[in-house]
């Protein structure tokens, strides 16, 4: 009987990125001013920064890009420019890219914010996002420096998402405090939050990459906002992945978050169902949560019905790569979890939740027996 359920349905927009956030995009990207959502920026008409008389492939392609052009033509032209820049001496390519970015010109491409498996973009919604993405491939250190410069002033959410990725990837030492602060600044930007672009929603992956457990209150607030399904879903998916990465830390925070427990009781219960009771700290958190008199039948049913929760949402992300749990580890987890739950069921202290424990035992015995036909839990003929 399979134990991990991968859920690719959230990737309705192919390559949309972090955990299918593109599915929850509220609308088209916002206006093209400096505080707008997304990457739709106007052509400012500023002078080309290239030296006089020097052939400038960047400007030539820029002049030919239009969101009204066939997407295949735009993709072909941008892919060709990327190849040309990567073939140049690194210093020359960096100078050209930085010079164009400094000029402030931008233009929408008509393409989406598509993310490839390696975290690079497969499509670029604006010319500047294309250059920022390409710069990381040319020179990660230069991309990080440009990224920090962009993050000094609100430009667009899509630019900030790439700037954050470039800083995280291009710097030798991970500056988690800086990345967390800037990511939270992006998330809280009123204009970007009002009309979140795909890049905005994918920037949440930075919090997962740096293990930002201190961002739990921010995510909790988004999840509780039932008027904004897109933001609530982004917050939930990010919190879910933080629980998987730092279960004891995040579950400890959730155990104290009464507002979230009251607003989203089933969701919180399913997060506790991710706990690995082989770890004493996680086992203690689950025990305290189960035996709390405040637990409701809805919460207990949600927990017991999914424990152990190993469901995963599949996607391409700006920074993180999702790895499935090994089959041997899942088998060990199930066997030891079964032993723990059986011990709890025999303990009078757990009598208030005994019915739910029996249901969990039945499910776990099915998992263990399906893996090991010789197990005492295996169905006998």
In short:
The chain has one domain. 55% of the residues lie in helices and 2% in strands. The chain has 19 helices and four strands.
Radius of gyration: 24 Å
The total beta strand count reads 4
- Which range best describes the helical content: under 10%, 10-25%, 25-40%, 40-55%, 55-70% or over 70%? 55-70%
Count of discrete alpha- or pi-helical segments spanning 4 or more residues: 19
Element string (H = helix, E = strand): EHHHEEHHHHHHHHHHHHHHEHH
What is the residue-mean pLDDT, rounded to a whole number? 87
Let me know the largest β-sheet.
Answer: 2 strands, parallel
What portion of residues belong to β-strands? Answer: under 5%
Tell me, briefly, the overall form: elongated
Class derived from helix and strand content: mainly alpha
Strand order of the largest sheet: 1-4
Tell me the domain tally: 1
Distance between termini?
A: 18 Å
Uncertain spans, ≥5 residues at pLDDT below 50?
7-36, 40-55, 374-381
Layout of helices and strands, plus pairs?
Layout: E1 6-7, H1 57-64, H2 71-87, H3 90-103, E2 114-115, E3 121-123, H4 127-138, H5 140-150, H6 157-170, H7 176-188, H8 190-194, H9 198-202, H10 205-209, H11 216-224, H12 229-245, H13 247-256, H14 258-263, H15 265-272, H16 280-291, H17 297-304, E4 312-313, H18 327-345, H19 354-371
Parallel strand pairs: 1-4
Antiparallel strand pairs: 2-3
Helix pairs in contact: 1-2, 2-4, 3-4, 4-5, 4-6, 5-6, 6-7, 11-12, 12-13, 13-16, 15-17, 18-19
């Amino acid at each position: 009987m399979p134990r991990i359920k991968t859920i690719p349905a959230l990737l309705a927009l192919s390559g949309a990125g972090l955990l299918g956030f593109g599915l929850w995009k509220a609308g088209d990207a916002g206006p093209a001013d400096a505080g707008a959502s997304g990457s739709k920026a106007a052509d400012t008409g500023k002078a080309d920064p290239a030296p006089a008389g020097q052939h400038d492939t960047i400007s030539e392609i820029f002049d030919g890009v239009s969101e009204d052009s066939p997407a295949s033509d735009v993709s072909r032209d941008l892919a060709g420019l990327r190849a040309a820049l990567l073939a140049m001496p690194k210093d020359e390519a960096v100078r050209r890219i930085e010079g164009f970015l400094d000029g402030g010109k931008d233009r929408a491409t008509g393409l989406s914010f598509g993310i490839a498996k390696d975290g690079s973009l497969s499509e670029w919604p604006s010319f500047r996002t294309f250059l920022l993405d390409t710069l990381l491939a040319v020179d990660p250190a230069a991309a990080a420096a440009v990224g920090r410069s962009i993050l000094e002033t609100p430009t667009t959410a899509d630019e900030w998402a790439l700037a954050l990725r470039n800083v995280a990837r291009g710097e030798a030492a991970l500056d988690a405090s800086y990345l967390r602060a800037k990511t939270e600044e992006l998330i809280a930007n009123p204009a970007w939050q009002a009309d979140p672009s795909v890049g905005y929603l994918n920037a949440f992956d930075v919090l997962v990459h740096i293990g930002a457990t201190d961002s739990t209150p921010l995510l909790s607030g988004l999840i509780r906002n039932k008027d904004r399904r897109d933001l609530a879903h982004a917050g939930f998916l990010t919190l879910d992945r933080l629980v998987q990465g730092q279960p004891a830390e995040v579950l400890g925070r959730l155990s104290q978050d009464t507002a979230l427990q009251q607003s989203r009781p089933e969701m919180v219960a399913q997060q506790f169902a991710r706990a690995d009771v082989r770890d004493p700290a996680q086992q203690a958190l689950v025990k305290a949560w189960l035996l709390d008199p405040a637990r409701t039948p809805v919460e207990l049913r949600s927990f017991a019905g999914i424990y152990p929760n190993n469901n995963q949402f599949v996607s391409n992300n700006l920074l993180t790569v999702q790895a499935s749990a090994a089959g041997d580890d899942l088998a060990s987890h199930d066997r030891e979890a079964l032993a723990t739950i059986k011990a709890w069921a025999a303990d009078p202290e757990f009598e208030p939740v005994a019915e739910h424990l029996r249901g969990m035992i039945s499910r776990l015995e099915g998992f263990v027996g399906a893996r090991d036909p010789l197990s005492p839990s295996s169905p006998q003929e």
